[in-house]
Amino acid sequence: MGMVVAPQAMAADIGAQVLAKGGNAIDAAVTVAFAQGVLDPLNCGIGGFGCMVAYSAETRKWHALSFHAGAGARAREEMWEGLVQEEYVGGADGYRLKDYVNDIGYQSIATPGTVAGLAAALGQLGSRDWRSTVEPAVPLAVDGYRLTPKARTLFRRSPRPVGPHPAMRGTATPAARAIFTRDGHAPWDEGELFVQEDYGRTLLRLAEVGAQDIYRGELAERMATDIGMWGGFVTLQDLHGYTPKWQEPLIGSYHGYKVVTAPPPACGATLLEMLQIAARFELGRYEHSSAEHLGVLAGIMRWAYRDRALHIADPDYYPVPVETLLSEEHANRARDAIERGDEIIVPRWKPVETGTTHVCVTDNNGNLVSLTHTLGAASGVVTTGLGFVYNNAMNCFDPVPGRPNSIAPGKARITGMTPAVLDNGRGSQIVVGAPGGAMITNSVFQVVSNVIDFGMSATEAVSATRIDCQGDVIEVEARLPEKVCAGLTSRGNEVRKAAASYWTHPLVQMIVVDPSRKRPDGGSDPRGEGAAVSE
After folding, report:
1. Model confidence, pTM
2. Distance CA 414, CA 465 (A)
3. Confidence of residue 173 (pLDDT cuts 50, 70, 90)
């Protein structure tokens, strides 16, 4: 029996209908992705980018598809060096530039890759035609849908101590304000009917004309003209030349499972590094969420995120030392350092992206898909008449020249996206991924460990208490007992407890296939409003 798991219950249901009508896992994943863009328009959509890993049962081959956003031709490595205001510390990381030019507005936009990526996935691995895959999203936009409590928060997020006001994510242009506010000021509220007619028309055009229209047709002309008029870096030539990349997936192992994940600039290498180190600790021997268990997890995270900050980048522009990072010797050094309690310093400058979404799919034929796509954190820009928000992928480039993630035309910046599929060769599989920016990899790591090391079900694994450690501080949810926090503190850690028991950790989506069960076991993180839906 096939299954779809996604952070948006309505999108998961649409994907399950595709499976029920004979579509395969790729067909369902692509259909869900277009629906997610309408249901979650400030986190993902056709102005975004992403990556995917998949298994084809017919060919018995693993695939990795990269459709990351590249910096536009007008971008220059040194152009923002003099605009740096400060380096964020604490809960937000990265650089604040003058007027948030890298984060909000036309200069934050990089060349969108989502439509090209979804078209490539469907063309190579799907079984349905393009039009029937795009069209289910159209009525969601044209007829609208009632805003859920979670969707409402997209319009009414509270300001953060650092960074632009969240309302700017949907109001940077008049066309954006016309969509995301009632009158240019008041945001939409829970239960109200949210309609996106322009987005619906754009999707219908894509369905009828084809994916190429957004790169080499009328849509491309309108996009490039608007972006260029307002000083953005993406040109018509950038759109003409955009091509998604089929890559060799990264493959590792963990306790008898083959782990297949996305190569750089995604963070699959960081996940594999974490698992390789974790295998040396036998995490299952600890009491789950004890100070001993979480202390080891934090050490593993610090080590891997130090390497992430130093080395993960676009491999077309920087020689990412993947073999070294995943070597036995490197994992042994990490284990020894963690056991000794060595100080592990994570260099400053890690990107912040609050958007993103994910979908996991399995089908009756054994195909598996883990697909992550995003707007970054949303640029707030909508071209008049097109209805979709562009990505703000430029916000996670290093504005200082000469570093692994410094700006270059055509270059993709680092991203936390970590889609993964695990297979033990005996009929058991795990399909997993999450939205959540720089926190994604830590969450995917913990949830995979919850299943393999602690025998949890998919729902238990995504629901369990999590931590996030990307440097000096261990971030924990409010439900973690004080005695555990004290235990972590006594081991030399700084612990920061969130106000909420289910904090803003990534919304991990997971499917566990067990040959002893008649149906897959699906888990959609209860921190969100998703669902696991069988065909």
Report:
1. 0.95
2. 27
3. very high
